Amino acid sequence: MSTSRFCIEIKHDTKHKKWRRLSVITLSPEALDGDAYRDQFARDNQMNPDQVAWRILEVDAKTVGVNDGCFVRVVSHKESAATANRPEALDLGAAKASEELRAQVLNVVYEETCIQRIDGYQLLVAKHLTTGVGIYVIDGNFGREHFKLACEEAKAAGLKANRFYAYGVTATYAGQSICFSKFDEIGIRR
């Protein structure tokens, strides 16, 4: 008798980066339709299914229910479309904000409970939880090419692309959708 069982785990690309095991356990991996579970999970949690990855795991049946079962191997998986569709990198060179500068801007301007950090992007550093608007930091001038990149990153992260909170040294591109603040206006000396 086989001691293996199969389960499915889900991970959202931007909301949480940890795998979450669903409660379903089966005797065969074929009984698990990853796309169907992903779509249902996304609907139930009001998420974009394109930003949800899934994986089917083989677990030791003797340990099911104890520490989520002993993981044996990944049987199959599918990355989120958001991971695959991240915008091409714009070479920011020295203008790419360091982690220290990103953290400093967020600490000066926002309360920790009002934002959610987002990693993996060039300009996008966080999301404002109340408004759903992206927060962008550049260690230099915020120009048209940076605005375009911010739009692409907002779409890839599932954020509103009609409003931006941007922070930098200067800005040569402006518009109704951009709320730009210079570092010296918020008390950060560069």
What would your notes on this structure say?
The chain is an alpha/beta fold. It is 21% helix and 34% strand. It has four helices and eleven strands. The strands form three sheets. The protein has a five-stranded mixed β-sheet with strand order 5-6-7-9-11. The protein has a four-stranded antiparallel β-sheet with strand order 2-1-3-4. It is elongated.
Strand content: 25-35%
Rounded to an integer, what's the Rg over CA atoms? 20 Å
From the spread of the alpha carbons, the general shape counts as elongated
* Annotation field: number of helices: 4
Average of pLDDT: 83
Order of helices and strands: EEHEEHHEEEEHEEE
Strand order of the largest sheet: 5-6-7-9-11
State the secondary-structure class: alpha/beta
Q: Give the proportion of residues in helices.
A: 10-25%
The biggest sheet amounts to: 5 strands, mixed
- Let me know the number of strands: 11
Uncertain segments are none
Taking the alpha carbons of the first and last residues, their distance comes to: 67 Å
Annotate the secondary structure layout:
Blueprint: E1 4-12, E2 20-26, H1 34-44, E3 52-60, E4 70-78, H2 81-84, H3 99-109, E5 115-117, E6 124-128, E7 133-137, E8 141-142, H4 144-157, E9 160-168, E10 170-171, E11 178-182
Parallel strand pairs: 7-9, 8-10, 9-11
Antiparallel strand pairs: 1-2, 1-3, 3-4, 5-6, 6-7
How is this structure best summarized?
With 190 residues, the chain is α/β, with parallel strands linked by helices.
